[in-house]
Amino acid sequence: AALQISISLNKVELSVGESKFFICTAIGEPVRLEWYNPQGELIMPSKRMSLHTETSRSRLIIYNAIVQDAGIYRCEAADASGHTVEASVVLEIYQRLTFRDVQSPQEFRHGEMAEVVCDVISSPVPTVVWYYQDREITEEHHSRFRVLANNNLQIQQVTKVDEGVYRCEASVEARGEIDFVDIAVVVNVPPVLSVFQQSFNSTADYQESVTFTCITSGSPDPMVTWHRYGLAQGWPILGGRSMLTIRNIRQADGGTYTCRATNKAGLEERELFLKVFVQPHIIQLKNVTAVEGSAAMISCVAEGEPLPDISWRRASDGQAFVDGVKSQDGRFEVRGRHGKSVLTISGVKLSDLGRFDCEALSRIGGHQKSMFLDIEYIPKFLTNYTIYYSWEENPVNISCYVMSNPPATMLWRRERFTISAEGTFNTRVHSAEGKSVLEVTPMSDRDFGRYNCTARNNIGVRYQEFILAQADVPSNPYSVRLSAVSQRLATVTFMKPDSHGGVPISYYLVQYKEVGSLDWRDAKSHSVQTTVVLTGLEPNTTYEVRIAAVNGKGQGEFSRTESFQTLPIREPSPPAVHGQRGMGKAYRLGLIKQDDGGMPIVEYIVKYKTDKEEQWMTKLVPGANDFAMLQPLQWNTRYEVEITARNVKGLSEPTFYQFFMPQKPDITESLFSGLGLGAVVGLGLGALLLLLVLVDISCFFLRHCGLLMCITRTLCSKKTTTSGKGKDMEEGKALYICFDFYTMHNSHLFFLLFVFLFCSSNRKLPLKEENGKESLKPDTIEIKVHSDNSIHTKLDDIKE
């Protein structure tokens, strides 16, 4: 019979974690019956896949299916002649709706960005909806709530109001599957701690008591504890008001007490201080000098009744050293008894240099003194640069820097010989505190080599060796490249030499010439930049270029010669245009030259017309100009512009531009359009000043008052016994003189006078009878006007 094969199932859906078996049956006489996975690989028995094969039947078992098991499985049979047949089954695997390790409650700190975790999986991907207080959470209604891509709920700046039960509901529409989980959200508020009074004073042995009070709030209720010197005092109290009472205060009760409130959201501390008064006095404290690496002992003796406690503090960083407690590094230790305290420093370091404070405290006060710890140490070299380069007859300074205490003496040695301070014919020594400079002028190869700097003080001696090496010229630059080549310009770039010869490179020499010419032209780089622009080139010409580095020793070898060709002359590129409205019926076109094609721009051809006209108007602008002024133009009209650049080679492509002329401005805009804000304000002030002058002149003639009248009577009028007619003539003359004075001074002087006398005119001036008429006493007000326009006034006594 012909070989045939079949599988018990054609298509199977299986959820993750389930198991399934498939039976493959063959009709005929098969000699081989095998299964293949979706990747086309032969299935071998394993922990999750089992095979049971008989002569014409094979069973494939898949245990605890995973998503990766999905696909088409093939069963293949072969007979003795090699003929094969196969059958297949489709296995689809899906993930049931599953919530993975969702915690409840989930706690967050007040004010932070809370993310409520709801880890749910299924295939296909589930749809997740959040509910709070039986209402769906949407981003449109709650700006602080946001459902993230991972289905978690994000709450910005979570507060106590956000506490409650949130429901995470997941569904798979394709299978009609739905499930939910309720998550309790708890918001913890950090403790807030306040105290009524932070510092307390008391006197020992007077049966006095002190009560410290802390008031706390938070969620959950914070636990309040009291601490002193890091140790708990009394019993902890849960929330609210906590009080620590100290009765029968003694000397040892003085110091700092800490009120500490803690809960899940954080910790808050407040320090309260109890000062127990005693009047101590430090009677012995001296400066100490120690050698680096040795031990230093500093003694502080204080007296008082009772004896004070003595503490130490390092001024450089404020670190305190307490009796009987070693520092973290174990080098500082304080021992004290009966009013005497000794601070011992083991293995003294340079960082210990400085001021130390000894403080004696008792129940009625305190006393503090300071001492200075000086550290002596062997010389230390500060120079890292020990190799110097020079060449014959070129002086070089070899610098040796030393730090030491006490100051070190320094000298130079060369091959076991000491170089004297006066120097030799080619060496000189320049010395200062902590520094010695050896100036060497090499005259031959013998002057190059090793030089020794020796520093010595009473602590010890140190040596540092310097090498004076013979400098060389730099090696050649390489990787020469030509870029931005135009008709008359070319940019040369290159890599720095591998060796600068021991001394810095001063500049790069770039030589170039036309091919076939013997004369090289030189160009120097700016400082040590590796980019040089060659100018003044001829168009359509082949050039050769080479580069050499130059240092103090001299010029190095040239690089490999490179060739390049400049571009031929061509028409210019279209100009760039930007517009700006001009004065009145004009418009200013800014012209920005682009590539001129190797020859100067001769002129710009500007054509323009309205969008409703066909005929173009033409304006020729010299090539050196950077703008074109179009005028006169029509109001409320759109214009089209075509600009072309021309050189001796020809015309560029045109550049097109459009602009719109606005409506005709009104008369006010026309008058002030050319004036700035300062000019308009100045015109306004001028008009105001003119108005004040006219008002004052009117007051003078009509009411015999005002600034002009006061000036007339005080500076210009004289007492006279002439007749009424003569008096009128005098007043008229005075008016003429004062009006001239009035107009010759600047406006700001008049304004100051006006304000002063206007205010004075509001008072009723004293009057007296003279010849039956009221008159103003001439010497009532004295006004002095100096050359610098300053004003001095004097009010004399006025007789009623």
Automatic annotation (TrEMBL):
Family annotation (CDD domains): FN3 (cd00063), Ig (cd00096)
Domain Fibronectin type-III: 476-569, 571-666
GO cellular component, one term: plasma membrane
Recorded topology in the membrane: Single-pass type I membrane protein
Coiled coil region boundaries: none
Domain of life: Eukaryota
GO biological process: cell adhesion
Transmembrane annotation, as ranges: 671-694, 734-758
PANTHER family named in the record: CTX-RELATED TYPE I TRANSMEMBRANE PROTEIN, NEURAL CELL ADHESION MOLECULE 2
Name under which the protein is recorded: Neural cell adhesion molecule 2
